[in-house]
Amino acid sequence: MKEFFLSRVRAFHYAFQGWGYVLRTQRNAWIHSLIATVVFFLGLWLDLSLQDWAIIVLTAALVFTAEFINTAIESVVDLATQEHHPLAKAGKDVGAAAVLVAALAAILVGLLILGPPLWEKLMAIYDF
Is residue 18 domain-resident? Predict the structure, then answer.
C-alpha cells in the first residue's frame, strides 16, 4: 500500500514538472494564463453563478489541455526527426489547430457568460 501512495506522489510530481516545462518554454501558455487570470477576476467582480463558474473552469482547462498536448506533440516530433518532413509538419500544425479551436471556443464562452453581466455592471457604473 505504501508503494502505491508513493507512486501517486511521483505521478503528481511528474505532472507538475510537465506543467512547469510548458510554462517555461511556451509563450502562448503565458498568454493563456494571463487571460485566464483576468477572466477569473472578472468572474469574481461579476459574482458569477456556480454554473457559470463551472463552464469557465472547464473552458480554461480545455485551453490549457490543448496547449499541453500540443507541446507534447511538438516535443515528440522534434525528438523523432530534425529534418523537415511533411508528416512532422502536419502533426505540429494539427496540434496548433487544436489550441486555436480551444482558444476560439473560450473567447465565445467568455463573451456569452461574461458579456451580459459586464455590460449591465458598466451601464450601472456609468449611469446609462
Answer: no
